[in-house]
Each structure stands twice: as structure tokens, then as C-alpha cells.
């Protein structure tokens, strides 16, 4: 079967082909065989209901996070400290809107409409990443978000470029390229502040102190408390466990923090030569659970803002629907006219 080809196909042409040319898988045994051979599943393929549900949940949550994630940074567009910073931040926030749209579109191939996903978000039935419920009180928070939040997103998302579901994996390829620009711009904001006045250095340090632990929690609960992970890994949606990804991220941050001249707020953080990794302190999972329950500093504000944006956008959706209906009508009349003249 052409679909169960060598793994490098994932990263080359296969990763860019918009539609799989093969005939759809018609039964679940073939699905299992494709997964076992580390192949790709495409929209028209037979797939277990659980696989479809797990993907819709993960992809819609991911899309929601991109859209809600525009708020803490969008908040600083009018107050960016220079024209260049403003232009960069606007581009970044627009990228996040784009990520949300690719991901909603990719999730729609599983049979759930964007309208349904939006409705679930607004009704509080679908989640977004809890990190976006933290506030951005200073300009340095924009640097910390880029460095830590986009940085954690990259660690999470690079392996998703090899996820078994084709549309998700292909969306991730482009998203990851943009995320790496986001992380660099955050790092550069922090570097500039860290090398600035004492007050600016302190502002950068405080922002890192605020965002460090929440960014580590973005990888999700410890493996022992993450019941969905094993299934996701068996289906090749997830490639590494929460704890593995968190460890990789911490190991990556330590030398970067040193280059920034900033410290990471964890007294237990130290190199463990035996493990070849950094040991680190425990995270406050009670806080994580509270934010998930809606008790974070900005949960209510984020949802109210999203609801208001949705309501204010009603006329755009109505206009687009009316335009699409009119275009379809005029296509139909044109076709009818062509047929008549041919007859
Ligand atoms: Fe993004
Ligand atoms: Fe980003």
C-alpha cells in the first residue's frame, strides 16, 4: 500500500500534498494497518469513532487556543513601545488568527463544522489552553509570552507535524514555522529589556517569573495523571509524553535564560549528569486545576471578549452567507444558459 511508506515521506512531499490521491480506507482493519506502519489517515478514510472524537477534541481545543491567545497580546498592540514593535506584534497576532483558521478548517474535515466548534467554545463546553487566562500587566509580558508560551507551543507542536491525521499534520508544518518566529521575537524583547536599565531588567525578570511555571503546565498534567495520552500515542497523534516534552523544554530554556541574563524561578532546578537532564521542582497542579475550572485571573474576561467579538461579527457572517448564496445562484443561471445555447 503506497500510504504505508518510509517515514521520510511524512516530511517531504506527503506533508504538502493537499489531498491524498489514494482511494479511502474502507474498514477499520486497514486503519489499524496504516497506523501500525506509521502511515497517514485522510478525511474520507474509515476510522474508529474514538479516534475521530479525540482528534476533534484536540484540534478544536488547539484552534480555540490560537484565537483566545490573541487577547493577552492584542491588549498591547496600541501600547507597543515603538512603531517597529507594533508592526511585529500585529503580524504575530495575525499569525495566531491564521493558525486558528487552519486548525478549524482541518478539524472540519472530520465532520464537525466551525460553527459547532465555536458554539461549544462559547457555551463553555470546549476548552482552550489555560495559559491564556493569565494577565499581561507589562510590555515585558509580551516578551515572556513569545519566549515561553510560543516556545512551549513549538516543543508540543513539532512532533505533531508527524501526527497520523493528514490535515492536522499538514497544518502544523506551516504553524511551526511561524511559531519559531514568534519565539525569537519574544526572546529579543526580553534580551533588549534585560540589557536595558535596571528597571527594564527587573521588569523582564518579573515577567519571566510570572510565565515560567504556567508555560511548563502547558504540556498537561504529569504522565501518571494523563489518561488520554496513552491512546493518543498508540494512534500516533502524540509522539512524546507530557513529561518528556516538559523535560525537553526545560533543558532548552536553561541555556537560553543564561544568554538572556535572567533566572528561571525554580530553586530546585539543577543539572543531573546521571540523567543527562535538568532536575526541577514540582508544579502547582492545584492552581492548574483551578484555572481549568474557570477560576483563573482572566477566564471571565477572555470569554466575555470572545462572545462580544462573535456578536459583533454577526453582520460579516450574514454578508458572507448572502454573497455565497448569490454567487451560487449566478453560477447556476450561467450553467443553465450555457446548456441552453449548447442544445
Ligand atoms: Fe499559534
Ligand atoms: Fe505563536
Question: What is the structure about, briefly put?
Answer:
By secondary structure, the protein is mainly α.
Describe this structure in words.
This protein is mainly alpha-helical and 343 residues long. It contains 14 helices and two strands. A two-stranded antiparallel sheet has the order 1-2. Strand 1 and strand 2 form a beta hairpin. The longest helix is centred in the middle third of the chain and has 29 residues. It is globular and about 80 Å long. The relative contact order is 0.10. The N terminus is likely disordered. The protein binds fe (ii) ion (2 copies).
Blueprint (SSEs and pairs):
Blueprint: H1 8-11, H2 28-36, H3 49-68, H4 70-74, H5 83-108, H6 114-122, H7 140-157, H8 166-194, H9 198-217, H10 227-234, H11 242-260, E1 270-272, E2 277-279, H12 285-295, H13 299-312, H14 314-342
Attribute tags:
about 350 residues; mainly alpha; two-stranded antiparallel sheet; 14 helices; 2 strands; about 0% strand; binds fe (ii) ion
Q: From the alpha-carbon coordinates, what is the Rg to the nearest angstrom?
A: 22 Å
Structural class based on helices, strands and sheet pairing = mainly alpha
Oligomer: single chain
**Helix proportion range:** 55-70%
Strand arrangement, largest sheet?
Answer: 1-2
Number of strands: 2
Low-confidence stretches: 1-20
| DSSP strand content | under 5%
Count of individual helical segments? 14
Principal-axes shape call = globular
| Major sheet | 2 strands, antiparallel
**Associated small molecules:** fe (ii) ion
Encode the helix/strand succession as letters. HHHHHHHHHHHEEHHH
**End-to-end distance:** 45 Å
Mean pLDDT rating = 91
